[in-house]
Specification:
Largest sheet: none
Mean pLDDT: 82
Number of strands: 0
């Protein structure tokens, strides 16, 4: 069963809104132009997007592997907690 939390939906909603507004302001092909004119800014945007998307990607992988995910979904049934010594 796929568990989609409200945080993941908020991340997807925010990014889709930002992309829609940016495309509406700058028009089609704005990202290609940004990459050619301002590569450092474009790379910073890419790293920021990767960092925000990591909880959306990493947590389901940790669930599949049976690793602890209690930091993200402590109230979700079947959550694996770390072993205490």
């Amino acid at each position: 069963m796929v568990h989609v939390d409200g945080h993941e939906l908020a991340i997807f909603g925010t990014y889709s809104g930002v992309i829609g507004i940016t495309r509406g302001i700058y028009g089609k092909g704005w990202f290609k132009s940004l990459v050619h004119r301002q590569p450092i800014v474009a790379f910073s945007i890419a790293i920021g997007t990767l960092g925000v998307a990591m909880p959306v990607v990493v947590v389901p992988i940790r669930r599949k592997l049976g690793m602890p995910t209690n930091q993200y979904d402590a109230t979700f049934p079947g959550t694996v907690f770390p072993a205490t010594p």
